[in-house]
Amino acid sequence: MPGRYLWSVKMEKAEIKLQSKYAHTANQLLKQLRTKEITLKEYLMQCAYWAMRTLDDVYFKSLPSRPLEVISYEQLSPSKRNRLPQDYYRDHPEVPKYYKDKDRVLRSNKDNFYWLGEWKKHIPESDVKNHEKLDKKILDFKMKMEGV
After folding, report:
1. How far apart are CA 95 and CA 46, in angstroms?
2. Residue 143, domain extent
3. Are 73 and 92 in contact (CB under 8 A)?
4. Terminus-to-terminus CA distance in the chain, angstroms?
5. Among the listed residues 45, 22, 63, the one whose alpha carbon sits nearest the alpha carbon of residue 125
6. What is this structure's pTM?
7. What one-character DSSP code corresponds to residue 76?
8. Is the alpha carbon torsion for 121, 126, 129, 132 positive or negative?
């Protein structure tokens, strides 16, 4: 599905653009920490609140669709796969590309899940509203990760 792949590439570019947009804020927080204007605890709390502003941009990514070549490859027994010559992968670039893309998505989802938990740790318990938002997002990730 080329359309889905193009959408995925566009989303990656949007994420990179979003990251660079907030570089200035990150540098300001680091400067305040370095000059001891804020403590490490305050710094981590500020980072968590700053991250909360992008919570809507944190979402569970779907795995890429398996091309027919990958389906055929997966139907081979493990011993046959191990005996395939390197030329096979050069002649069927969709196979390694699919696994690379799949691993990237799985890592991204695990990373996002981890960071949601980190943000939750640094937001005061008294901020029920943001804890509820994070709990909802964390639960969504858990349910989808278990289904993968």
Report:
1. 43
2. 2-147
3. yes
4. 20
5. 45
6. 0.74
7. S
8. positive
- Residue in 20, 5, 7, 35 with CA at minimum distance from that of residue 98: 5
Rounded to 5°, angle at Cα 73 from 68 and 77: 145
- Cβ atoms < 10 Å from Cβ of 13: 10
Residue that the structure tokens 């979003």 belong to? 18
> Average per-residue pLDDT in the chain?
89
Residue 99 structure tokens: 């696994």
CA 28 – CA 124 distance, rounded (Å): 22
Take residue 132 and report the two structure tokens written for it.
């509820």
Q: What is the model's pLDDT at position 27?
A: 85
Mean per-residue pLDDT pooled into runs of 10, the chain (148 residues): 60 68 81 94 93 91 95 95 93 96 96 96 97 96 87
User: What's the CA gap between 97 and 70, in Å, rounded?
Assistant: 10
CA–CA distance, 128 with 141 (Å, rounded to integer): 20
What domain count does the chain have? 1
Cβ atoms of 133 and 52 within 8 Å: the answer is: yes
